[in-house]
Amino acid sequence: MKQRILLIVAMLLIAAPAFATVKIDVTQGTGNDVNKLTVSYDCNGSPVEQVRAFALTFALGSAGNSMVFSRAEPNQDQNDVNDFFRGECNETNRGYGIFPGQFKNRIDPGNPNWRDVYYTPIAPPNDVDACSTGLGMRTIIAELGTLYVDDNTPASSGTLFTVRVTDPNHKVTDTLHVSANTVRGGVVLNSGATATDTNLPFDKTITIPPIGCTVPDLNGMTMSDANTAISNAGFTNPPTISYASNCAVALGKVYSQVQAANTIIDCGTSIQYTASIPCKGDSDNNVKVNNSDIISISSLLTNYGTGSPKKIPSTSPYYNYCADADADTFIKNSDIIKISSWLTNYGSGSPKKINCPHSYN
Question: CA 3 to CA 6: how far, in whole Å?
Answer without folding.
Answer: 5
